[in-house]
Every structure is written in structure tokens, then in C-alpha cells.
Amino acid sequence: MEVWLALRSLGTLHVRLERQCANALAIASFLAAQSSVTGVRYPGLPGDPGHEIARRQMRYYGPVVSFTLPRRQHAEAFLTASRLITEATSFGSIHTTAERRARWGGDAIAEGFIRLSAGCEAEADLIEDLQQALAATQGRL
Fold first, then answer.
1. CATH-assigned architecture of domain 2-140
2. Are 117 and 125 in contact (CB under 8 A)?
3. pLDDT tens for residues 75-127?
4. Cβ 136 vs Cβ 78: under 8 Å
5. At the N or C end, where does the chain have fewer CB atoms within 10 A?
6. How far apart are CA 100 and CA 110, in angstroms?
7. pTM to 2 decimals?
8. Where are the domains of the chain?
9. Taking CA 98 as the corner, what is the angle to CA 95 and CA 102, rounded to the nearest 5 degrees?
């Protein structure tokens, strides 16, 4: 059954990957322009430290974006307020998922660090959701 499901999914893999990567670039670009967000990492952004090597090696830059909000409370409020972004540690879905990575402990990362995997939703809907979720963190400052 698992092999059949994987085979069935291969036919649309390129379409899903293109959409996820386009959404990830839009999300990263949006987040990089926000004053409350720091440390945006996405190899598709020209200012990212890994951009030049990624540009030479990759056709797409992947669906995963990472960024940091000021504190744990900001990250938790962001994830709670998100309507389209589901909190999950398993990435690769057609739906956008994210997690506050520090909740697991053991990593030397900021408490407000978030890893996000872009899904296939409409780009405008994702940006609108990011805007309202970031607005929800403002009361946490």
C-alpha cells in the first residue's frame, strides 16, 4: 500500500514542489521585511549566506524557511494565532506546517526560533495569515 501511495504521488511531485518553493520564497521575503522578525534563513533569498552555493546547485530552494521571533511567548502566540499554519514537527505536507524548535531542547537555538515548511496554499492567503499571526504577537512585547 505504501509503495502504491508513493507511486501515485510521484505524478504530481513536480507541481507540488514548484508551488511549495514559490510559497517559501514569498514567505521568506515577507518575513525578512518585518521588523519583529530576525534571522530569516532561506537559500532562495539573495542575502542568505547559502544563496550562492544553492543557486549553483539547485533548481528550487526547498520549502523550509526558518526565522526567529523575539521570545518564546512571541513564537507560541504566532503559532496559536495562525489559521493556515499547522503546528507539526513532520514536514513535507501540502499544508503549511511549523514548529518552535526549542520546545524539544538540546539545540543551541533561540526560544523564539521557528522552522516552517511551506505548503501548496494560495500565496496571498499565506501572507495574510502571517500578517495576522505576527500582529497577534504584538501584545507579547
1. Alpha-Beta Complex (3.90)
2. no
3. 999 999 999 999 988 887 899 999 998 677 777 788 999 999 999 999 999 99
4. yes
5. N
6. 10
7. 0.90
8. 2-140
9. 165
Provide φ and ψ at 49, rounded to 5°. -55, -25
Q: 57-83 burial string, b = 16+ CB within 10 Å, else e?
A: eeebbbbbbbbbbbebebbbbbbeebe
CA 87 to chain centroid, in Å, comes to: 11
Q: Give CA–CA dist 71/9, Å, rounded.
A: 39
Phi and psi torsions of 61, nearest 5°:
-100, 10
32-82 confidence digits (pLDDT tens): 999 999 999 999 999 999 999 999 999 999 999 999 999 999 999 999 999
Burial 34-43 (b: 16+ CB within 10 A, else e): eebbeebbbb
Average confidence score pLDDT of the chain: 92
For residue 139, the model assigns a pLDDT of 67
Residue 56 exposure: Cα atoms within 13 Å on the Cβ side: 3
Separation of alpha carbons 92 and 85, rounded Å: 13
